[in-house]
Specification:
The complex is a heterodimer of chains A (303) and B (430).
Chain A lengths: L1 H16 L11 E8 L13 E3 L6 E5 L4 E8 L2 E8 L7 E6 L5 E5 L4 E5 L5 E5 L12 E6 L5 E5 L4 E5 L5 E6 L7 E6 L5 E5 L4 E5 L7 E2 L11 E6 L5 E5 L5 E4 L5 E5 L12 E6 L4 E6 L4 E8 L1
Antiparallel strand pairs in A: 1-24, 2-3, 3-4, 4-5, 6-7, 7-8, 8-9, 10-11, 11-12, 12-13, 14-15, 15-16, 16-17, 18-19, 19-20, 20-21, 22-23, 23-24
Chain B lengths: L2 H35 L7 H8 L3 H4 L4 E2 L1 H4 L22 H9 L9 E2 L1 H4 L11 E2 L9 H8 L1 H9 L2 E2 L1 H5 L9 E2 L12 H4 L7 H6 L18 E2 L8 E2 L1 H4 L20 H6 L3 H8 L3 E2 L1 H4 L12 E2 L9 H8 L1 H9 L5 H4 L11 E2 L10 H6 L28 H4 L18 H4 L8
Helix pairs in contact in B: 16-17
The chains are: A mainly beta (303), B mainly alpha (430).
Chain lengths: 303, 430
């Protein structure tokens, strides 16, 4: 903890003195805006594990313990559920995101498979991830939607990250780096770079457009977090990570350098316990699946 | 003894002899220096100390006498008038030994004996004299087993002992450091084992069902000291190995990498009940289903740990969950199951419906298997007690405690004299 404070403090001093390399756009501050505890009928959230900032607007929540997807509108300090999707096929949603048409992609944690859900809430079938020759059936640990409708999939049984086009055809496949000790999440930025979060090794890897392999982006983040659980790339090129075990959000610059830490472990609004996912909507909001507090919190992003 | 072992013994003897000669040559100048430094009468160096320390007259009659002692050079280690170190030593013990013996840990050593690294030469050697070779304080394996009690107890329980162990630990281990292998082994497995065992012999090949032993790590199946199992296999042996049914998993035992099915699919062939149990749960531990699957945690052939785990739980789980083990290490209070390496006392290792891979989402039940939470305090706890900080939470054990540790007593989230209570009961905050 002390080291973490030192790094954050050093960064602040360096930035104030103008000696740090962090540009203004790389420094990020979160301010608590709203907290979602229940749907419109008062049914409380139960261990929500996923949030998605769908391109159609609003925030999508994988309310895992209740086996449902919530569509949430955020207005100022209010976060209100305006749609609930419950499907018998998807018993334990753990990740969710949506495209501009309002269609959803949902990761079912029980099947480790991706499902499509129509904008009207109907089940649209399972997304078939091609199997690697000689490997076990694909196991989807995480995914990210890329601009243009393609899907980036972390297949831990195949030991790779694949990119499927909007029709489900294989566009790209990159093996997990041998140094990665436990991949937990993927993200994609506007330029097509793929980011891989190694939760056990506490590192981030990158494969930019055209690369055939992942390369380390960050060094070890062991000084900055306990155990990262999720990763997102925001519109400014920053990487946002949940520190699942330590409680908080860690910000990395586009070059993978540590740029700060926000929030902390706790119960009060603004604090988090075992945050398992996060997303930024490109319009100044960040949502966090605050799993063990059984709620979703929304923050405004300030520079 | 094999030829290469003899070769090594010859080399060691030559090195020892050379060292002895160097030490003898060094004594002359040291004696002269000391006689000059302390203005001793000629020839007094070896006699003066023994005039008072009469008990040493018997000490130096022992079979193995440290060269400076033999030469009466007490002042080569002790300062006769005053010193900054105990026993009037002229420097720290490790520095004194290093003056003549240099470092016993070669550059780039793969492993080194902890007592050597810490400069505790006297934990094995008597600095003056001993009835044992190399001024060792005890003879043979007794010296090693005095500290390595785990080996001693497993040897005592072993019904099949590896013969070289009874002869001498130094047959396989270098007591100071190893430049090429872990565990102070003079060579890594299998090279060390192949010095004595010949894998091309028919009986050996048959016993190993054609497995390419010469390219494998023998200690992945065998306990090099001894075991209760035939063939000194580790305490826990996978049934197909025990029955020499290699073809249950391998298409050809001579090509072990050629498994019949990938990852967990292979294990599911026999452990289908477990696979179904896992599939029925909402939350699966990621390593169970990744590319390496079961082999992330389990040894496929034999293991010293129950359940064929590749290491004791604290070490195994801690290899990924380093932060969790570190939290406990930093914590003021220690949770006994974590210290004891019993992670599975609270967590289900494969899958669960509850978060943290608890058997139930009700942490009172998890904690209640050891703790009498109902009699713990008069504080409301359970479904009827809504957490003041969050309408979705109920007061449970985790409301006040973090089981892997905090900076506070009883691994509470705050100081139990106020901070912890005030987190909820804000109306009493002054």
């Amino acid at each position: 903890m002390t080291i973490r404070m030192h790094r954050a403090a050093c960064l602040l001093v360096a930035t104030l003195l103008g000696t740090g390399s962090a540009g203004a756009a790389e420094v990020l501050k979160l301010r608590h805006a709203a907290t979602l505890y229940a749907d419109a009928q008062g049914v409380p959230l139960r261990w929500p594990q996923g949030v998605g900032c769908g391109a159609a607007g609003g925030i999508l929540v994988a309310d895992s313990g209740n086996g449902r997807i919530l569509k949430v509108e955020v207005s100022g300090a209010l976060a209100l559920v305006n749609g609930v999707v419950t499907l018998p096929e998807i018993g334990y949603p753990v990740r969710v995101d949506g495209d501009a048409s309002g269609s959803l992609v949902v990761l079912d944690g029980k099947r480790w498979a991706l499902a499509r859900v129509g904008a009207d809430g109907t089940f649209g079938g399972w997304i078939e991830v091609p199997r690697v020759d000689g490997a076990a059936a694909p196991v989807v640990r995480a995914f990210a939607l890329a601009p243009g409708g393609s899907i980036v999939v972390l297949d831990i049984a195949g030991g790779r990250v694949v990119r499927l086009d909007a029709g489900g055809a294989l566009e790209r496949s990159i093996d997990l780096p041998t140094e990665a000790r436990g991949a937990v999440d993927v993200a994609v930025d506007g330029r097509g770079a793929l980011f891989l979060l190694d939760g056990v090794g506490r590192r981030v890897f990158v494969a930019r457009a055209g690369d055939t392999a992942f390369a380390p982006l960050s060094g070890s983040l062991a000084e900055d977090l306990d155990f990262p659980g999720a990763l997102d790339a925001d519109a400014s090129g920053r990487l946002l990570l949940t520190d699942e075990h330590g409680g908080g959000v860690v910000i990395l610059g586009p070059d993978g350098s540590f740029r700060g830490r926000q929030s902390a472990y706790g119960w009060k609004e603004g604090l988090v316990r075992y945050p398992s996912d996060l997303c930024s909507n490109g319009r100044g909001l960040l949502a966090i699946a605050d799993r063990e507090n059984q709620r979703v919190q929304v923050f405004t992003i300030g520079e | 003894m094999c030829s290469s072992r003899n070769g090594r013994a010859t080399l060691s003897s030559a090195l020892l002899l050379a060292g002895f000669l160097v030490a003898l040559l060094a004594i002359g100048p040291v004696r002269a220096q000391n006689e000059a430094k302390f203005r001793l009468k000629p020839g007094a160096a070896g006699k003066l100390c023994l005039d008072c320390h009469v008990d040493f007259q018997d000490v130096v009659k022992q079979a193995s006498v440290h060269t400076p002692v033999k030469g009466g050079q007490c002042a080569s280690c002790h300062s006769p008038h005053a010193a900054d170190h105990g026993k009037l030593l002229s420097a720290t013990p490790d520095a004194i030994c290093a003056t003549c013996h240099g470092t016993m840990v070669p550059d780039g050593a793969v492993s080194a004996h902890q007592s050597v690294v810490e400069g505790r030469c006297v934990s094995c050697h008597d600095p003056h004299a001993s009835p044992n070779k190399d001024v060792l304080i005890r003879a043979g394996n007794d010296l090693c087993l005095e500290c390595h009690a785990d080996v001693k107890s497993s040897l005592a329980a072993a019904t099949h002992r590896h013969a070289p162990v009874d002869r001498n630990c130094l047959g396989c281990h270098d007591p100071h450091a190893s430049k090429s292998a872990t565990s102070l082994l003079v060579k890594a497995s299998p090279a060390l084992c192949l010095d004595c065992h010949k894998p091309d012999q028919a009986a050996f090949t048959k016993a190993h069902v054609g497995y390419p032993v010469a390219k494998s790590d023998c200690s992945s199946c065998h306990d090099p000291h001894g075991s209760k199992n035939e063939g000194i296999l580790w305490a826990t042996v996978h049934e197909p190995v025990k029955n020499r049914m290699c073809n249950q998993c391998h298409a050809d035992s001579a090509s072990p990498a050629n498994l019949k099915r990938p990852g967990g699919d292979l294990c599911r062939g026999c452990h289908n009940d477990l696979a179904l149990e896992i599939a029925a749960k909402s939350r699966v531990h990621s390593p169970v289903v990744d590319k390496t699957a079961c082999a992330n945690c389990h040894e496929p052939h034999a293991s010293k740990t129950a359940g064929l785990l590749s290491a004791p739980q604290k070490q195994l789980c801690g290899s990924c969950h380093q932060d969790t083990i570190a939290r406990q290490d930093r914590s003021l209070a220690k949770h006994a199951p974590v210290d004891a390496g019993e992670c599975s006392a609270c967590h289900l290792p494969h899958a669960a419906d509850a978060t943290f891979l608890f058997a139930t989402a009700d942490d009172k039940q998890v904690c209640g298997s050891c703790h009498d939470w109902a009699g713990h305090s008069a504080h409301p706890i359970g479904e009827a007690a809504v957490d003041q900080r969050n309408p979705n939470l109920r007061v449970d054990c985790g409301s006040c405690h973090r089981n892997h540790g905090t900076p506070y007593k009883v691994f509470a989230h705050g100081d139990v004299k106020g901070e912890l209570c005030m987190a909820c009961h804000t109306q009493f905050t002054r």
